[in-house]
Amino acid sequence: MAFIWFYHGLVPKLLYHDRAELDLLSRIGTAPQHLHASATLAGVVEVLFAFLLIVFWRRSWLLWVTLALMLVGIPVVAVSAPEYLSAAFNPVTLNLSLAMFAAIALIARRDLPTAANCRRKPASTT
Length: 126
Known about the structure:
Blueprint: H1 2-15, H2 19-27, H3 35-55, H4 60-80, H5 91-109
Helix pairs in contact: 1-3, 2-3, 4-5
């Protein structure tokens, strides 16, 4: 998940200011003179979020944020730019995949052993 957040923040937003990213930002109401700054800000936030996922990998709130943002993003794109839903690399497949990764991580983490939830057997006194 961290790699996906990192890549989607760095490449289309920070390095290239991809036309599709700028178009989506304009369709959700970003003023034309603020498109590049908004893309840069979104890219920085996504890259920072990727680092937060790595540094605070034990925190479930980051997974919940990922899940919520990905599920909210689909209807936002559907309303503001429905033609993007049928594109080759579209928000439906990306967002649903990332949301499912987060959901799987939330489910799997419940059963992961940690030092805090593992009990050691007392040493035998014989």
